[in-house]
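Researcher: I'd like a structural prediction for the single chain below. Treat it as a standalone chain; there are no partners to consider.
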Amino acid sequence: MKLILCKNCQDVVRLMQDEERFCKCGKCSGKYTDDLNAWYKGGEFVVPLGFANGSLLKALHNQPKEGWGENFSAFVISESCDTFKNCSLTKNQSKHENI
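Model: Treating it as a single chain, here is the predicted structure.
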């Protein structure tokens, strides 16, 4: 599962295929283009995140009635990812510039 984190408003947004989704402050957004690929934008404010789907499903299946739940794998996605494109950057911009 692909998500984005906005460093400005600290909102975490799950991306969907049917619509572009925005953080609370509107500085970051993203969208799935098919079942695997997605894009995001937000310049210096956006961080691409991922949940390991199998790990998340296992944790959901093993949710306890009380106490701490089961951990699952979440990670920061690399700046260069074939299936999650940063549309904030053009070839002439650095990673710290907005569009």
